[in-house]
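Incident log, support desk, overnight shift.

02:14 A customer reports that sequence design results differ from what the structure should imply. Their input is reproduced verbatim below. On-call engineer (initials T.W.) acknowledged and began investigating.
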């Protein structure tokens, strides 16, 4: 077992197989899903004050529906799953190799150990 390479100050001790599976994620304010770093959209989010349509910053901040200027709602990153939700604080997660449950790194070893004790019983 090794100390977690990304954040050794956490004092987390992870099995090497779990350490390779650690990823950064953020929870979406809109859809509530955990969004992995690869699915974050690093774009600005705009909302039209006239029709309420939300869209990302393409080449303009004008609403395509009513051609009015929209207000910036977020600088990003935004959720790549729903396209409109703001993402919360970045944290480290790992999927349990036994049950697939998403865990914060601090909980991972204790959770995996419960599967080992259940299997031994």
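02:41 Re-run completed on a clean worker. Output:
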């Amino acid at each position: 077992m090794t100390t977690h390479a990304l954040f050794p100050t956490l004092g987390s001790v992870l099995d090497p197989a779990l350490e390779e599976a650690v990823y950064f994620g953020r929870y979406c304010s809109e859809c509530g899903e955990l969004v992995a770093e690869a699915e974050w959209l690093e774009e600005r989010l705009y909302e039209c004050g006239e029709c309420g349509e939300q869209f990302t910053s393409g080449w303009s901040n004008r609403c395509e529906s009513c051609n009015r200027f929209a207000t910036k709602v977020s600088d990003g990153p935004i959720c790549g799953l729903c396209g409109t939700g703001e993402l919360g604080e970045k944290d480290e997660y790992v999927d349990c190799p036994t049950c697939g449950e998403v865990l914060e790194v601090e909980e991972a070893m204790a959770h995996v150990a419960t599967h080992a004790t259940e299997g031994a019983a």
